[in-house]
Amino acid sequence: MAALAVMSATAPSRGPSSMIFHRRTALPLFLGLGAPALIGCELLVAVDRSKIDEPAAGSGGEAGENGEAGGGGGGGVPGAVCGDGAVGAPAEACDDGNRTAGDGCDPGCAIEPGFACAGSPSACTAGCGNGALGGAETCDDGGDEDGDCCSRACQVEPGCEVEPNDGFASAKDAFSIAPDGRIRAFIDPEGDVDVFSVTVPDGALGRLEAETLDGPLGTTCSSLGVDTYVTVVDGRLETIADHDDIDEGNYCSHLVLEKLSPGEYLVSVQISPAAEPATFDYTLSLTLDTSVCGDGALEGPELCDDGNTVGGDGCSAACELDTPLPEVEPNDTAAEADARAALRPNALVSGAIAPLGDVDVFAFEVPSVAEILLATFSPGSLSACVQGADTFLQLLDVDGATVLASDDDSGPEACSLIDASVAPWATQLQPGTYYVAVEEFSSDATIPGYNLLVVFTALCGDGVVEGAEACDGGEGCSAACARIQVCGDGVVDGAETCDDGDAESGDGCSAACELEGTLPEVEPNDAPEQATAGQATATGALFTASIDPQGEIDYFAVEVPGVADLDLETFDTSGPRSCRDVDTVMQLLSPEGAVMAEDDDGGEDACSRIQAAIPAPGTYLVRVEDYGSGYIGGYTLRARTTAVCGDGRVEGLEECDGGPACGPACQRIPVCGDGLIDDPEVCDDGNTGGGDGCDAACRLEGATAEIEPNATPAEADANGAVAPGALVSGAIEPEGDVDLFAVQLTTISDLRLETFDSSGPDRCAGGVDTALALLAADGATVLASDDDGGVGACSLIDSTTPGGAAARRLSPGTYYVSVRGFPELPGARYTLRVSLDASCGDGVREGAEECDGGALCDTRCERVAVCGDGLLDAPEGCDDGNAAGGDGCSAACQLEAVTAEIEPNDTPEEARASELVIAGDALVAASLAGGDRDVFPMRLPVASVVRLEVFDGTAAGCAGGIATTLRVRDAEGALVATDEGLSDAEVAGGIGGCSALVLALPAGDYDIEAASRDGGAAIPLYLLQAKILESAGAEGEPNGTIAEANGPIGSDVFIAGARTSDDFDVYAVDLPEGRSIRAEIVEGGAETCESLEIDSRLSLLDAEGALIADDDDGGRGRCSLVDGTGDAPRHPGAHALPAGTYFLRVRAASGASGSAALFEYRLAVTLR
């Protein structure tokens, strides 16, 4: 059984011959009607209030949900004193040691809007809700609502995934996130992958069940918008199980893995490969059951446990049966089996089918209601089935004749398996003696030997709920492990008309499980004027109704006593929490008949729910119909108030309830200094003081208002140029408005442009979505543009990034900045900031400047080229950073000690006949005629890492259309490596069309072949460089972050590393001014890049950890290469970099699996 590792799913995983393809389309969204649709939650909320406040300590209670009664007001936590600096949860959400408003923690110790607070005493930082993570925030989704996994205080809510978790290295422990194993998570953005870690403890065996469910409640998978694919990998990152769809109508996933060994397992959730790109929320339900072999307690998945871990005594060291009971002939019938002692599962039996036609029958005892697993294997095994063993297995009832279940070859190979999880007749076996019959499938052959395993997969009375058991022991559980029907258990049984999970009345379902206060519809009620009337109350009015005849529409008149939050929800005839065979569509209409909100299936399953803010007392209409204009035999509509303005309790969607700053509709009365931005405020920092960026009138300090009209360059010029460093406030209105601003540069500069919302820098609230463009002096030519590269949906043109390269080195003159909005968001108010990343002449070298001041810096902040400065400039052939000769580069910056090839050298034999042998660092000058090849012998006295590279005559570039191929062969002529055809690059080589190979080679003799690519044109002159790289030692763990990085490492060196787990290896490189990086992954052990057993990914990060260059398979095989050398480098982000410390990060490729994801390597680095 050790290798059985049974994987079961509600439906079989698709194999190559049984793949099912669905045409998936995006589900329609309800748009308009003044109400946003919340995807996944599927809850339609119509509300014009922007803020929901938590009640302070001692406030009134909150309304109940899903049929539960609302709670009474709380008096706070004993000992919790607001303002003492100690957070007394749950009454206090924060406590910063004072009772001052506007500092993030209000006088009632509730977190103020727009702030995030952490610690005790609390430290609060502004910016919560701007979509950018910072300060005390652990998340920021750009909103200000709870219940979406990111709270209004910008903290990840309990039970929710914690990003980043997109790969194995960033996986979070599942049961630390959610101790109950139910994790709320999001596939967002499209292509997102969520990975969670589960660990089976040392000395234990595990059973893992993983299931995805839809929506925030995670009870079913009723939404086809949730389409997951779940994979489980082990500690070696090898996939051990995966599952796509449960069935054709259920796109969620379900996996069960048995007998997991100790160690870490990673559960990965992503969108199904068969689905169209989409985003959705889901619940991942994980159950991990573990057992410790040798503790004397029989726990699944153990087959036995005799209190030790010694084998040979009937129970192995792995708690598997290891000493089978031999069959005793004759046992061809049930009667003969009865003459032997009945087996007491769990049991292992050995037998043989001989002679032809033999049948072996075994009796086994079932002491209580049980589920059974019967399986055949080869002798001495619980996993294998050798060729020639073709069994047929039958489970016989207590009469010894009735066949309850049978199987031919559901086990391994041709062996048999009867499993209660897929064979219903093997479940709920009543106490008694049953029989199992084993025979050869066709009765035309013998079977020399077999093992028969008889195991209880569930046994009522053992205290463990398994299989189809509803319970096992305790109150409410029968002797057959079935639930005893009790009012209040949450399941509608028998005469019950409802069951909301409690035994309390006053919540719509009485203590006797009967619907309370029901109002039957009065027909006809097919029109508004015929509506059945009732009054919304805190406990809820329940209307009982039906859609009959087919296509009927029901109207209900609901009286709302005042400004309130109204909660409308449909159920089946059992009332709250139940929705069987009901699929409604519901609308809420104003007293005048206007549609206020609409919902299809935002309630339980396919039932409907609307939550709306009612602005005034009156009679509102509710319209209900069947989704497909069909028939509904019966349904229930509940109308309740979850908040009533004026009762002094801040509940539901209310912003306040009472007090001088609270309006009659329980909405705030905007006041400058209350910490919330309201028209016409452009900022509000919670106080009315000045000098802090927001003045006493809630206007940005130092910001200039745009001057309209400003849609053309001429108008922008007339309004005056915006000075670098300035803030400009503007608005995109009317719809289609374009704002143009002139910017005057007085010196060569690098320009930075960014937008924010009206409150100023570092914020971009919802409703602001800009598009930014930098225009040339003609006011028309676009030099650079950006949509949402800044904070949230705001824009950023950053001269330090590749996308902002056109904003570098701008000559003095007038330029224009264009700000646009989107038609979907008219009237957006924004702030534009214009600043300089570099200004030539200020004496500070910044941005793209090569220098700023000094004898060797010109007026454009560009270097004056000088031999010996370490940078290669025409007509230099080399520049090694000094003016000395004799070191390979002369005092005039020309190459020294170049060796000429010796012709003929077209074959290895000709090459070896010459005296030219590369035995270390070398530079060889050669030429190639059309179709020619040059062979150069190379002798390595010791194992070495060698860089072989082709250049033009400067030994630094590849001008003149040179296109070469390099091959390295061993002494026997076998190909070791080539730069052709082994990677995703056309040639895994050097600069331009020139070749390069970096190899780890054993000591020995080799031949280097150079040829024109594809036998092409002649090359009058090229240089072949051989460079032996020096060892920089081996990596030191931990080195998974830039803070832990190894190094710094130098140039023309290599460092040895190994990926023995799914981690990152990070190395520091100190780069002189203007240098470029060439870094490559090569083999570090027995596996070569060409073997495809190394599947790496190499990234170059700047000093802040930002990614500036990245490569997957650009090197040999699946090895990686980041190359910023040459005039047109493969990776521009690695080219001509400013001086500083950079970081190289090594990891496995995202698609790597198995041994290819765990490898030894060398990282070879050259700086030029």
Automatic annotation (TrEMBL):
A Gene Ontology biological process term: proteolysis
GO cellular component: extracellular space
Keywords: Disulfide bond, Repeat, Signal
InterPro entries: Myxo_disulph_rpt, PAPPA/PAPPA2
Residues spanning the signal sequence: none
Coiled coil, from the record: none
Source domain of life: Bacteria
GO molecular function annotations of the record: metalloendopeptidase activity
Record-given protein name: Uncharacterized protein
Organism ancestry: Bacteria, Pseudomonadati, Myxococcota, Polyangia, Polyangiales
